């Protein structure tokens, strides 16, 4: 069983984006869709595709630190501040599985690094294309949209009922 979409959005994704200076509802919805398609909102936190909520592969994690964050020490320090003090040094990839805010920040930076415009929250095909570009180059757009309809659409229906 995964994390409830509403709680993931309210208590993990939104605060992490705000911490990074991103007050962007479209980015919030995109990350929710990526978590749905990558790990079924946390039902599969560690599998052959990668670690954690966003199934980030170890080489991508290293490359982000070595080629993106290394050139921005202030941002690197901010991201490092999300990680566990001792656990990160021993096994930084484990942070992607056990630390939801750290994993969300890394996922966001993988997107930001591409310098691709973020699709609007109602542009599911656009979000699917960005997901495939950044997270699953061999993925099928249908995989994203199926996950969206299974995990995120029910959240939207609940939100309208309140």
Automatic annotation (TrEMBL):
Protein name: Uncharacterized protein
Species of origin: Pseudomonas endophytica
């Amino acid at each position: 069983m995964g994390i409830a979409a509403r709680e993931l959005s309210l208590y993990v994704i939104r605060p992490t984006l705000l911490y990074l200076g991103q007050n962007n509802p479209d980015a919030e919805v995109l990350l929710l869709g990526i978590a749905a398609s990558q790990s079924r909102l946390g039902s599969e936190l560690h599998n052959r595709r990668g670690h954690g909520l966003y199934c980030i592969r170890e080489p991508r994690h290293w490359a982000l630190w070595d080629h993106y964050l290394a050139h921005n020490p202030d941002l690197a320090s901010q991201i490092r501040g999300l990680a566990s003090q001792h656990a990160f040094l021993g096994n930084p990839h484990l942070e992607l599985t056990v630390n939801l805010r750290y994993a969300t920040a890394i996922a966001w930076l993988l997107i930001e690094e591409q310098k691709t415009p973020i699709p609007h929250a109602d542009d599911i095909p656009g979000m699917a294309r960005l997901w495939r570009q950044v997270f699953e180059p061999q993925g099928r757009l249908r995989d994203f949209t199926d996950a969206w309809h299974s995990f995120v659409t029910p959240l939207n229906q609940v939100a309208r009922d309140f």
